Amino acid sequence: MADLPDEITEEILVRLPASSLLRFKLACKHWQSSISDPNFVGKHLSHVLSLDLDDQSNNNHHKLIIFNSTTASALHSIDYESFNDAATTKQLHIVSASWVLAMAYGSVRMLGFGYDSFIDNYKVIRVTSKTPIEHKVEIYQLKTNSWRRIEGIPYGLLVFPSHTGGTLVNGSLHWASDSVIIGFNLIDEKFKLAAVPQYNDVKPIWGISLVEVRGCLGLYYTHIESRDLEVWILKEDKNENGSWSKLMKIPNEYGMWSKPLCFTRNNEVVLSISEIGCSRDKKLVVYNPEDMTFRNLPACGTSVWSEETIYVETLVSPHSAG
Predict the structure, then answer these.
(1) Cα angle vertex 22, ends 21, 26, to 5°?
(2) Whole-angstrom Cα distance, residue 197 to residue 21?
(3) 65-102 CB burial, b ≥16 within 10 A, e <16
């Protein structure tokens, strides 16, 4: 690539995964300087966020992380798009999480973490409350290493969300209860309320939870009797808040609780299977909705974990934001 113009070289590099670019920085001083340049970092981030997730030709920048929240000794990253019978897995070590752990004291009802691309900064949002009406919303910014209070949720925190942790989709964090979804835009720092789907005859159900579905906000719940899962997806349309449509029903094949983690380009679903509240004997399985079959996903690097989440590989470093 030495004979190519710099503009062409940059267009090639910006399309590569962050992990590859970090290795390429060692190739020569010129690449190290180019890849480390803030303008290139921003251009790479914009490219990653603008990708068509259903385009088979795109490099996969989305990965799955599993970890044990009780020990926090290591993170295991899984490239869930690249597997057949086994996923590509690597271990990631936590350098420092003291600033994250220090924020978790008090009656925390909502918690979320994400990147504000407008000001190039990572943010944490924390909502504490003793009652649904009386609540306090605070934002932590990594660059300033400080908390500040912002305007609260419209009409008060009407009900406590089912889960404290927010689900990040398209630059906004989301929390769900049985009756409402609370959204928070990381750039303008405004809250937005939306209705949950009309479930009609599916009750009784257990646990309204949120998940990202190929770049859209998804919602799922479990039938108490059968433990089957139903997944809904929120798509943009003429309505200001979009419209919900049922995406699929996942049968309970294992007699245990299941949780959808991510949806692949082949429209398969990666599920975490376990007894509720148990971090041991967990399984990762892949469900194919076309033929309604399951297969195990082995070689995950660990057999004991308590939390799972999706992340996007970018060159944006929390350390450079400080």
Answers:
(1) 100
(2) 42
(3) bbbbeeeeeebbbbbbbebeeebebeeeeeeeeeeeee
DSSP reduced 3-state for 150: strand
Asked if residues 183 and 171 have their Cβ atoms less than 8 Å apart, the reply is no
Counting Cα atoms < 13 Å in the Cβ hemisphere of 85 gives: 0
H/E run at residue 6? helix 6-13
Collapsed DSSP state (helix, strand, coil) of residue 34 = helix
Task: Tell me how far apart the alpha carbons of residues 34 and 24 are, in angstroms, rounded to a whole number.
Answer: 10
Q: What is the pLDDT along the chain (322 residues), one digit of tens a residue?
A: 556 777 888 888 888 888 888 888 888 888 888 888 888 888 888 777 766 555 544 556 677 777 665 555 566 777 766 655 444 555 544 444 444 434 444 478 888 888 888 888 889 998 887 766 678 889 998 888 888 999 888 766 556 666 778 899 888 999 987 778 889 999 999 998 888 887 665 555 677 889 988 888 999 888 877 778 889 999 876 666 678 888 999 988 876 778 888 888 778 888 888 766 555 667 788 899 999 999 887 655 555 666 777 777 788 776 554 4
User: Token pair 């190290």 is at which residue?
Assistant: 32
For the beta sheet containing 293-296, the strands, ordered from the edge strand earlier in sequence to the opposite edge, are 257-263, 269-274, 283-288, 293-296
